[in-house]
Amino acid sequence: QVQLVESGGGLVQAGGSLRLSCAAHGRAFSGYNMGWFRQAPGKEREWVGAITASGMRTDYDDSVKGRFTISRDIAKNTVYLQMDSLKPEDTAVYYCAMDRIFKRGPIAITIPMGYDVWGQGTQVTVSS
Predict the structure, then answer these.
(1) What distance in Å separates the CA atoms of residue 18 and residue 118, rounded to the nearest whole number?
(2) What is the SS3 assignment for 113?
(3) Residue 89, exposed/middle/buried by CB under 10 A (0-12, 13-18, 19+)?
């Protein structure tokens, strides 16, 4: 059984940066695409971006493209979400998730049901 543990959230001013980490415990995640989602109060969980198992391809929602960067360190079993030029509308709980399909290939899954292992979430608050 694998567990995903996020860290790195916090309070930051608009225009600032944060880096979130998502560490996988229990088994290696090297064959799985990984995604990041976020959920603001009163809103549905929305896709932020994803990275392929190899780390060679990333995809992003238009709302974060050019500001957020996803990377992964396979040796450390960790995925990262670097968030720059943060805006108040980026305020949300951020979740990492593991694709439910092993070696799915370079396809970005943008819906929550495409993932079957989730972290506990980490709060990101951006003040104006």
Answers:
(1) 20
(2) helix
(3) exposed
